[in-house]
Amino acid sequence: MKKCRILLCLLLLCLVCSGCEGSYGYYGRADIPPMVEQWREQVEFYADMYEVSEYVDLLLAIIAQESGGDADKVPDIMQCSASAGKTITDPIASIRQGTYYFSTLLSSGTDKGVDLDTVIQSYNFGGGYQGYIAEEQQGHHSENAARAFSARMCEQHGYSFYGDVLYVEHVRSYLSSLDGALEEGDYESMQECMREYMGVPYLYGGNGKYGIDCSALTQRIYKRVGITLPRTAQGQYDAVMHIADYEAEPGDLVFFQGTYESGTYITHVGVYVGDGRMFHASAGQGYCCYTSIYTVYYQSHFVGFGRP
To answer: CB–CB of 290/273 below 8 Å?
Structure first.
């Protein structure tokens, strides 16, 4: 019995950790040329493999900055040969290594308590930048911090220059905020995704048809129409434009607080479908379903609507 309890605790710990993935939140949608967009499918594949699927657009922005996506001129389109310890001459191998490298930087950045800009800058500077920011800059990247680190590396190693001190700004130039209304036909595509997930079991930390939680479900529904949301309900709330109740339309997000102890303000999210109903992964029902937002329970936890 004791062994079973230990195994159960380990399982719950794994689920909690998987539910926390993507704690950095949303960074923006890629505004990139076709030469870069052509690699989206491969980036999505390896981002899923290395559990950083919410950062696909950021990874595409890195490709745009590193090579413009032109594999004929720059086969190592993510410029990650140094991280692999060998020369990369194939764009798919570059995407795999670059995505893996980014995932390791993301993990170490989380452990060190640094911000996402630091993680991005460390893609260019190397992981040592994260330690510098954590120890000397209270975990926050800035241009001045990047310049100071670059100068330190030049002094220590005799370089004439070190890295791109404006790397974050250059990558960010390929990203834009979610910019409003769904396009014609998008909601129908979202409805199709909802039908596919109808009845799928609720699983905290789950992210597939074997089981899924509320924020993973909304993330997948929006991904169907090309919009990348953060992994967590709080992250999604922070990323979107908050709108008045009377402005809510089918396809908007609807948020709730206090549905369980999570340490965050927002604890549950669903997709509003009109007529006072939402589609969501329901812990209470145990599966994905349609529910009225006007029940006593949901009204007592209701926060409001949001629109990407």
So the answer is: yes
Both structure tokens of 164 = 């791109």
Q: Which of 266, 246, 271, 264 is nearest to 256 (CA)?
A: 266
What are 127-162's pLDDT values in tens digits?
Answer: 999 999 999 999 999 999 999 999 999 999 999 989
Query: Is-contact 217 197, C-beta < 8 A?
Result: yes
Name the residue among 251, 250, 249, 227 with its Cα closest to residue 239: 227
Q: Where are the domains of the chain?
A: 21-176, 186-307
Return the closest-CA partner of residue 58 out of 116, 126, 6.
Answer: 116
At the top level of CATH, the class of 21-176 is mainly alpha
Give the integer Cα–Cα distance in Å for 175 and 192: 28
DSSP readout, 245-287? GGG--TT-EEEEE-SS--SSSEEEEEEEEETTEEEEEETTTTE
Buried-exposed string 115-124: b where 16+ CB fall within 10 A, e elsewhere: bbbbbbbbbb
Question: Residues near 196 by Cβ (< 8 Å), separated by ≥ 6?
Answer: 209
Q: Which CATH number fits domain 186-307: 3.10.180.10, 3.90.1720.10, 1.10.290.10, 3.40.50.2000?
A: 3.90.1720.10
pLDDT tens, position by position, 240-275 = 888 889 989 999 999 999 999 988 899 999 999 999
Beta bridge partners of 274: 277
Of 162, 100, 99, nearest to 129 by C-alpha is 162
Q: What pLDDT does 64 receive?
A: 93
Q: Is the dihedral of CA 13, 131, 88, 169 positive or negative?
A: positive
